[in-house]
Amino acid sequence: MPYYYSPIAVLIWCEDCNWKSESYKNALAIAKIHAKKHGHKVSGELTIAFGYNFHQKAEEEKEERARPS
Ligand SMILES: [Zn+2]
In angstroms, how far is CA 59 from the centroid of its own chain? Predict the structure, then answer.
């Protein structure tokens, strides 16, 4: 896959009750559920890893150019 995008770290905290979470799977959903359920204010920081890798495509193009037509 030439592209990846994945959360690698998260900090979620509630400003009203000191609730915290470091679960980066569904971080936004978890934060929203807490805020909505308790009527609180939840903030968070999400660190995301992402990248593009087209090494394979470049190799294929090199091979195509080398092939006699
Ligand atoms: Zn709370």
Answer: 28
What is residue 30's predicted lDDT score, i.e. its pLDDT? 94
Distance of CA 55 to the CA centre of its chain: 22
The number of distinct structural domains making up the chain is 1
- The reply to whether the predicted model has a pTM over 0.70 is no
Determine the distance separating the centroid of ligand 1 and the alpha carbon of 37, expressed in angstroms: 9
Measured in Å, residue 22 CA sits from the centre of ligand 1 at 15
Domain boundaries, position 46 = 3-66
Cβ atoms of 34 and 19 within 8 Å: the answer is yes
